[in-house]
């Protein structure tokens, strides 16, 4: 439905307080007309931004300008190692992403969900955690698993769905699982992981563990039921978690202006009663800093934080999507200028920590690592037939063994002689 | 609102060759032209025209008031559709994949399904929930499931599944005109496979009437959706061995056309039920029980179910999971076991 347009948009004001005032006024004045007028005057309607406009700057935390120069007095002065780690991870994520999309185009993997443009949001936030902290990813945080130590080969095993894949070839591509790295294996159902993240953090506190949970979600997920339950429980129980929303402006073809009528997603944190931050998601220093602060708050027992990272999905939703059907190329072009990797490289170069030669050597190294990983992963065969019926329960029920035996016998694979290979 | 709101549909006659997907779009377009109470909404159904393209062109033709994108909330989609239906519209709500319908399950089974009964017939819920279902597209757990049985188990809902382009159009039109909530499940695997002649303009296939897809005398194969063409392949193979197979395409699971099913079983005395869903407590269990209750004396062999595994839907081993013609054929042979 077309959004209701309001004529005088005063975008700076929030809706909450004035409404309460208006309601009080209405109760006092008997004349219905006057009452209606009072409401009309007091309720500041916030018109959703047009589909192609840049997001509002409302409350946006930034440390770097688009060109990589530091905003006055804002340099967090992170140690050199941290800075280089952030940059190298972003470059690696980007190269991995590019190559995997190519493999998909060549039919070597079945599907891929690229993250081009969102590297800083993922890398900056994961880097703010301690290794013992847990990560509950949404669709585009596969890089987090690799930052936690999932090897590139293992990641590609998952994308292929081969026999060496940790999920045993049972999930679509991009659904990594990596328990040693405290990286949760998610479903495709949008939003469900939000309350899982909150619950895991509650459990860590109940057990007395010094563990914080970082739960990711997309802008689209803020409309899901689980967002409400998750946010509410997080705040009510002061769950030691950080809920990190990658507002990449799109949920497949639905723009943020049609996803939510809130001026910012961050402000939803206020409604639930938790601290909230809106950060430039293409500014890795800013993302790192605000997440670090939120994690410290959770660790210190001061409860959850909601972070909205304002970023942009530069490619299609997935390898199956053609975004030219529903969005303006000009918008994509405008966001290219805010590229998170270029921006941070410019910063490092200005500080003398990076140069062209380092760039070339580093990129060559990644290209080689990705090549090697692809070659190693493609050597693995498909999952064993038995994996169709294992892991449904702790023990495989006889009925499932029979079902598989019957089908394999038809395939002429001869397990119908009584000795089922399980 | 009353039926006077409806305009005569376009007076087109003749047929056109369409895919099942195009026939679904055609049905919505036709109904939207005919009846301004019909509105279409869901995730990505507007400019994008749906992730599979079933709503292509509707946004352009009817505008955002009648074809619009929603926020990512199945619960919101179905909940508001119920409100609209109660008020007098004829909402056609799309759930992008049947696998994602569960956030709306409460709204469907507790609200839509019980509306008429609980209000003594005062309030009704004439709406259609369209959703692609089934496997065969390498979609893994969450883009492949066949969960029709959950809905068949809920009194108050109708469950309709087409298998041909012409039926897709006729059944969807009948569903939109129906006075009760209809789950219209679309076998996505055959969205673009096998084109067929589809009547232009008015074309209604009544809900509750099965179709004899092929006549035969030896074995009855009961099936629906994408399994119909799999069963036809199996029947071709069986014919080579001299077996004459009757294929009944159920078209609507609720209400079931019992008469056609039982008549066929009485004729052949042998039954195979083929469906993609997990076998246990799937729709085949109901059919099997019905046959046992009403015509066991006609049976000359065991009632055989050929179905999916009692496992979540796999990704890499999809080919092993999906019941194919070979498995249906083996099922047919089993009915001769006695
Ligand atoms: C409950 C549910 N409904 C619908 C879908 C189909 N779907 C997959 S991704 C997506 C959009 C997600 O948008 P967002 O949360 O913004 O994440 P992004 O893709 O932008 O990273 C939709 C509608 C789904 N996976 N789950
Ligand atoms: Mg998004």
Give the key terms.
heterodimer; A: 422 residues; alpha/beta; Rossmann fold; six-stranded parallel beta sheet; two-stranded antiparallel sheet; 15 helices; 8 strands; 8% strand; B: 338 residues; 2 domains; 34% helix; binds thiamine diphosphate; binds magnesium ion
| Physical arrangement of strands within the biggest beta sheet of chain B | 3-2-4-5-7-6-12
What percent strand of chain B? 15-25%
- What letter string, H or E per element, gives the SSE order of chain A? HHEHHEHHHEHEEEHHEHEHHHH
CATH architecture of the largest domain in chain A: 3-Layer(aba) Sandwich
> What's the tally of helices of chain B?
12
Rg calculated over all Cα atoms of chain B: 20 Å
Count of discrete domains of chain A: 2
Helical content band of chain B = 25-40%
Radius of gyration of chain A: 24 Å
Under the CATH scheme, which architecture of the largest domain in chain B would be assigned?
3-Layer(aba) Sandwich
CATH-wise, what's the superfamily of the largest domain in chain A? Answer: Thiamin diphosphate (ThDP)-binding fold, Pyr/PP domains
Instruction: Provide the number of structural domains of chain B.
Output: 2
Number of helices of chain A: 15
What does this structure look like?
The complex is a heterodimer of chains A (422) and B (338). By secondary structure, chain A is an alpha/beta fold. In chain A, the strands form two sheets. Chain A has a six-stranded parallel sheet with strand order 1-7-8-4-3-2, with helices on both faces. Chain A has 15 helices and eight strands. Residues 5-31, 38-51 and 414-422 of chain A have low confidence and may be disordered. Chain A has two domains: 1-48, no CATH class; 60-378, 3-Layer(aba) Sandwich (Rossmann fold). Chain A has helices at residues 16-28, 32-42, 80-105, 119-127, 142-147, 152-160, 192-206, 225-236, 256-259, 268-272, 284-299, 329-336, 340-350, 356-378, 398-410; strands at 60-61, 134-136, 213-218, 241-247, 250-251, 254-255, 276-280, 305-310. Chain B is of the alpha/beta class and 338 residues long. Chain B has two domains: 15-199, Thiamin diphosphate (ThDP)-binding fold, Pyr/PP domains (Rossmann fold, 3-Layer(aba) Sandwich); 211-337, Rossmann fold (3-Layer(aba) Sandwich), CATH 3.40.50.920. Chain B has twelve helices and 14 strands. Chain B has helices at residues 20-34, 58-62, 74-87, 105-111, 115-118, 148-152, 165-177, 227-240, 258-268, 283-295, 318-321, 325-334, and strands spanning 15-18, 38-42, 67-69, 90-94, 128-133, 158-160, 182-187, 196-199, 211-214, 219-223, 245-249, 252-254, 271-278, 304-308. A seven-stranded mixed sheet of chain B has the order 3-2-4-5-7-6-12, with helices on both faces. In chain B, strands 9-11-10-13-14 form a five-stranded mixed sheet, with helices on both faces. A two-stranded antiparallel ribbon of chain B has the order 1-8. In chain B, strand 13, helix 10 and strand 14 (304-308) form a beta-alpha-beta unit. The longest helix of chain B is centred in the N-terminal third of the chain and has 15 residues, at 20-34. At the A-B interface, helix 15 of A face helix 12 of B. Thiamine diphosphate (TPP) sits between chains A (139-140, 188-190, 218-221, 246, 248, 250-252, 313, 317) and B (43, 72, 74, 96, 100, 103).
